[in-house]
Each structure stands twice: as C-alpha cells, then as structure tokens.
Design a protein that fits this description.
Rossmann fold; 5 domains; seven-stranded parallel β-sheet; six-stranded parallel β-sheet; 34 helices; 49% helix; globular
C-alpha cells in the first residue's frame, strides 16, 4: 500500500472512525484532492456524502455543498459536528436561518473555522450569497442530488440549471456532482448542464442485493388495506414506510392503521413544520413503527433499519421508486419493497400532467410508461431496474430476491417473435417508439403507421394473432438483452444494436414469461368498508352468555355492556390484550377498562384450548370519515350547543346526528346532552323512561315507543337512550 493511500485511510480513521473506504469512495476523494472534476453515481446507502466530507476537511478553504434538502443539510451538519469538538466545522445557509444566525455562519466561514458550507440552490442564486462566496477561499463545489438538474430526473428543479454560471462567477474550482439515481439520459443531461463532459465518472453498481422486490395487485381499497395490515402484523415492531401520492390518502391510510391498532403517523408537506418534525422524530426514536408519507418523507433522514417500504400508489418514475425503496435495509440486512399496482393509477398520473407544457407531458409520459412496464413485467425485476440505470445484470444472480424469480410464471418459446421484433425495429430505422412497433407487428393502420407508410413494410401484420401485451413482453426482452436500445437524445425511439443484427443472422432459443395483466379498479369512496364477518359461533355463544352474566351483576340490560356487532368482531379477531380489545368496534378505552377483563380472559382461554391461530388482519376497522364529525359533535355538546343548530352546521339530518351520537356512546365515550333533553321532557318522566331502558332486555326504540303508547317520538326516546347508555355504561 502506498504512503499516500495509507495517509487517506489514517485520516478516515482519525475523522470518522472507519478503517476502510466503501466502493469507489477512495478513488473519488483522490480525484477531488487532485483538483479533478468528477461525477459520482452511487446508490442510496453506498456513502456518497463521505466523497465530499473527507476532502473538505483535508483541503485548504471551505467546500460548498449545494443541496435541495433543508432537513438533510441539518442532519449532515449535526453528523459532522458529532465527529469532533468544533461546532463551527460545518454550517448551512438556507431560508430557515435568522439574520443573526446567518451572520454567525458567515463569520465562522471568513475566519476559516468552517470546512463545509451547505447551501440551498435558492440561497445560492441570491446576489448577496454570490458576493459573499467570492470573498472567501472555496476548496471545491459539490452538487448533491444532481439529478435535480435534469428534466428527466424524478425531482427536477429549474434553479439547479443556473448552478454552473453561478459557480463560474465565484471561482474556477473543481466540481463534483453526486446522485443516487441517474439513467444514461439523466447522466448526459447533468454533465452537459454543469459543463462536466470531461469529468471522471465513478459509477457504482445500483444492485441492492439485500432488497426483495414484489408487485401485488391493488384491488379495492378494503382489500388492499387488509393486505397492508397483514404485511405490518407479520413484521411486528419493525420500522416500515408506506408511500402514497396524495396528502389526503396519507391521512386516510394512517388513520385506518391507527384504528386497527398500528402505531402510525402521517407525514406530508401540508403538515406544519412542528408536526412534521415531531412525527419524523417519533419514527426515528421508534415511538411509532409505521410512517405513512408522501415522497416529502425520507429525503432528510438516515435510518438504517427500515425493514419494509410499501408503495400504496404507483410512483411517477422508476427513479423515484428506486430512491424510495432504497430507504429499506440500509444496514445491509433484508428489506422488503412491496408495490401495490393498479393500471388505473397510471391513467390518473397521466391526467395530472394535462396542464403541463408539451415537453413536460412527453417526458412525464415516458417516465410513467417505464414505471408501468416494470410493474407489469413477469421478468426479473432486479434485471429490469438495473437495466433502466444502464447496468447489465444476469437474472441468475437475483437469488430469488424478486417475486418473478421466486415464483416464476409459465414460459413460452419466443425465438421467432423476438426475430420479428428486431426486423421491425431495423426496418423503421430508429425513428419510432414501442407503441408504433406493436401497431406495425399487429397490422394496426394507425395514423402514424399510415403517415410513415409503414403498412407497406414486410413486417406489417406479421404478428397479428398476438395481443399487445405479448409484444410488449417481447420488446422488453429485446431491450434487456441489448438487442435494441432507446435513443438517449430522443428518448423512447428504438433502434437495433450490432448484437441485435447478429441475432437476426444467427438466432438462439429464447423462452419468456408473458407480462402480467392487472385488473383496473376504479376509485370507490366507501363511507364504510363492507367486510363480511365470518365469526366463530362457538366463541360468540360463550361471549353472549358472559354478556348476560356481567349485565346481571351490574343490574343493566345486556345490550348496554356490548352490542352484538362488537361480540361478533371479538369472535372474529380474538383480542387477548387490553390494547387489542379496545380496538374492537364499539368498545373503546373506557368500556374496555370497565367491562373488558372477563371477556379478554374468556377469549384468551378459548384461543389456548382450541389452538386458534388468530387472523389479526381478517377484519379491517374503518374510520369512515367519522373522526372529524365526532370531534365537532363532542366539542359542540361540551359548549351546550342546540342540537338542531348543530345539524344545520354539519349539514346532516337529526336522524344522522342520532346515529353519530349512538356511535360515540357505544364506543365508550361519555357525553352530556341532558341540557337539550330537559327542554323536551321533565325530570320525573326522564326517570320513568330510564327505568324502562334498565329493565328492557332488547335494544329497540320501537318497543319503547309502543311501551309509552306513542306519547314520545322516536327522536325523543333515542336521545334519552343515548344519555342512558352514556350514564350507566361509560
């Protein structure tokens, strides 16, 4: 080992406590130490930040690190400060700083105390920032998350396009660009825009061998959420991220998980900063195991032990998917990446782009198309993913770490059809895309086919007996085997390679599993999930008997203890802890505490005696838009609001209000509507009606109306029964 190499490793150990570099880290650091421009492509978790942190500490002057992520800046700065005793060694400049704080940062930089200065691109483009940076010694500039420069990247930011001219105005210093997700197209864009076409490129493998990739069909909402509950329950206590595309969906999924006993919190840009920080910290500290988030989450954290990343919605691009799944298993241990896919979601993504410019729509459509190809494919997912990033991979090395390799589908001989695809691509001379090739092979006289006069080509209609999905599968195979390629400049246009030309002359046998066809499922706004309860009748009978015994001891009607739907759910989910029991519909914390102990003991004994395997995900408990109304109703009742006025403000009928109030008290919450009842019925009569409810064995308002010869309305007796349940059961 050379003395130079030994010195770098000694510095690594001295500053960071590591004995060895990972992957290309040492080569990159040596390049920047020699004042060479370099372009670094490393997957998430491979140690990109070390590539600029160590040389920044070693070189004279201050390194400028341009990053779009304010949360990440703070984490990086805290991390570097944690390795030493000088808090001035690293700072950040962004919109979160007060004027006083910004002045302190600049003073530390000017006096030479600061070796790394993180700057947001929005801050960098300000004249005052440029003037300041001109006045100091800059060692080099590192552009982190460099894919933001490219319109083809998954997180394009226009302000990144100005970085090169701003840096040139400051000083002629070495530049480093770093990204975890760069296709050949994105790489080309970055290098051109930053003027780094001659930079040394260090590209690490994108393969994360510890991650398992799986795509599941996304059915109706209740089915998918039950599936997710099953995934979470199988990984009790493990850290899990669930990604959704919209804030509304994040809130909904998180609420339903919480209602079903999962410690979950939401995270999205619509939450105030304090809540976002609290929820993120709760996840990092493992106070909650599951975070449901938009892509706003995860960009600024480094939690190594996330065991599962679930995509409830399909991402907008494979880059986004790769980066989000890359947050799983960063400690090198297994991580599961599960995507729920519905072709209808792809159509929704395309509709979202209707107001964008033509260029943005074209780019967005291509990225979405690649995502759908990945999801629908029956070939090795790892091979498809790595090929997208310009890396060839032998699917035998997948080690069954994707669903298609673990559960292979039926194979079909496609040697002739592969030759037909290559002939069609060759005949069209690199001028058309996949859709056009499929129309050509199937003999479809589309407008483009007629415009190019491709209906006169030899390959026109040669594969008319095969459907579109079949030809998509074969074209994907041709791409993965590098027989055809996509044009980098005119992305999506297909041309034949020399390898493809050779195959036409000397074909070899190929077998292929045809892509999966997913059922389209439209959105359904369920007020309540309709799930069939198949309850244990023997246990239900025992629970009913116990209900009567408890009711007799408490001198209450049985229905006051628990209603039948609650007993049915107990006989379905077999709750054996207080926490599980209070999550049964119509129970809640108060009732669980008051009546739950004998029921839990009975169920636990029944489960043990009958060796029951408890299906924890069998029934999904819905929140069904009730939570917001429930809070409003309780708050207004606390203020003694007129109930009829409350109906008007909530835009519901009085019967609907009674239903809401029943749900509230039957789930164990105490309320007091006596102020309203007193206006309708005198005290003595109220006591008489209470005695009727106490002695009645049935929960039936019609029977009560009949018992009082129609003297009181359904609504009046309904209100009194609600107050009765609240008083005696909660």
């Amino acid at each position: 080992m050379s003395s130079e190499a030994l010195d770098l490793r000694e510095k690594l150990r001295e500053f960071f406590g590591f004995d060895n570099f990972k992957g290309n880290q040492e080569k990159v650091i040596r390049s920047i130490m020699n004042n060479e421009d370099c372009f670094v492509i490393m997957p998430t978790g491979a140690g990109k930040s070390m590539c600029y942190q160590l040389p920044a500490l070693l070189k004279e002057g201050t390194a400028i690190i341009i990053s779009p992520l304010i949360a990440l800046m703070k984490n990086q700065v805290d991390l570097i400060r944690g390795f030493g005793d000088n808090n001035s060694v690293a700072h950040f400049l962004n919109s979160s700083l007060s004027k006083t704080d910004a002045l302190k940062v600049k003073n530390d930089v000017v006096t030479g105390k600061t070796k790394l200065l993180y700057v947001a691109p929005e801050t960098l483009k300000k004249d005052e920032t440029t003037d300041f940076l001109k006045s100091i010694k800059v060692s080099f500039v590192a552009v982190d998350e460099a894919h933001c420069i490219s319109e083809w990247g998954h997180d394009f930011r226009p302000e990144y396009r100005r970085i090169k001219q701003i840096i040139k105005a400051i000083d002629d210093v070495p530049m480093m660009a770093l990204t975890a997700t760069a296709t050949p197209k994105v790489q080309s864009d970055i290098q051109k825009n930053l003027g780094m076409t001659d930079a040394i490129v260090y590209k690490s493998s994108f393969n994360r061998s510890n991650l398992y990739y799986e795509v599941r069909e996304k059915g109706k909402k209740d089915v998918t959420l039950k599936n997710i509950l099953s995934i979470i329950n199988a990984r009790k206590g493990k850290s899990i991220i669930i990604y959704c595309l919209s804030r509304k969906k994040v809130e909904e999924v998180s609420s339903i998980l919480s209602a079903n006993g999962i410690k979950s919190l939401p995270y999205h840009a619509g939450l105030d900063a304090k809540t976002r920080v609290f929820n993120q910290d709760a996840f990092l500290k493992e106070d909650v195991n599951v975070i449901v988030a938009t892509i706003a989450f995860g960009m600024g954290i480094d939690k190594p032990d996330i065991r599962c990343v679930i995509h409830y919605d399909v991402p907008k691009s494979l880059e986004g998917y790769y980066q989000e799944t890359g947050r799983s298993g960063r400690d090198g241990k297994d991580g599961d990446c599960i995507l729920f896919y519905n072709p209808n979601d792809i159509e929704k993504l395309e509709k979202f782009m209707k107001d964008k410019s033509v260029a943005e729509r074209e780019i967005g459509s291509q990225l979405i198309f690649e995502m759908s190809c990945f999801a629908e494919s029956s070939q090795c997912r790892r091979k498809i993913l790595l090929h997208y990033f310009g890396e060839n991979f032998d699917d035998e090395n997948c080690n069954k770490m994707c669903d298609n390799c673990r559960h292979p589908k039926t194979m079909h001989e496609v040697t002739q059809e592969l030759s037909d695809v290559l002939e069609a691509v060759k005949e069209t001379a690199g001028k058309v895309n996949q859709e056009h090739i499929i129309d050509l092979l199937r003999g479809e006289k589309s407008d483009d086919i007629k415009a190019y006069r491709h209906d006169q080509l030899e390959t026109f209609g040669i594969g008319s007996e095969k459907n579109e999905n079949f030809w998509k599968s074969v074209i994907k195979l041709a791409l993965l085997e590098n027989y055809i390629q996509k044009n980098i400049e005119n992305y999506g246009l297909l041309s034949i390679t020399s390898k493809g030309e050779a195959f036409i002359k000397h074909p070899k046998t190929y077998k292929l599993a045809i892509d999966q066809e997913f059922e389209k499922v439209s959105d359904e706004d369920y007020e309540q999930f309709q799930i069939e309860n198949v309850y244990d009748e023997a246990l239900f009978a025992q629970l009913k008997e116990l209900q009567k015994q408890v009711a007799k001891a408490e001198n209450l009607p049985p229905y006051v203890i628990f209603q039948e739907p609650s007993l049915e759910e107990m006989a379905t989910k077999y709750p054996i802890t207080l926490e599980e029991f209070e999550n049964i519909q119509g129970v809640g914390k108060n009732k669980a505490k008051k009546f739950g102990e004998p029921f839990i003991a009975l169920i636990a004994n029944y489960v043990e005696e009958n060796e029951i395997e408890r299906p924890q995900d069998m029934v999904l408990k819905s929140v069904a838009n009730r939570s917001g109304k429930k809070i409003q109703i309780i708050q207004n009742i606390d203020k003694k609001a007129d109930l009829e006025d409350l109906c008007v403000s909530l835009n519901i009928s009085f019967d609907e209000l009674l239903d809401e109030l029943e749900n509230i008290v039957y789930s164990g919450t105490k309320i007091n509507i006596k102020y309203f009842i007193d206006q309708l019925i005198d005290e003595a009569t109220q006591s008489e009606i209470y005695e009727h409810f106490r002695s009645s064995q049935v929960d039936d308002i019609d029977a009560a109306v009949k018992a009082f010869d129609g003297e009181f309305t359904h609504e009046e007796l309904g209100l009194l029964r609600i107050q009765f349940i609240s008083d005696v059961a909660n």
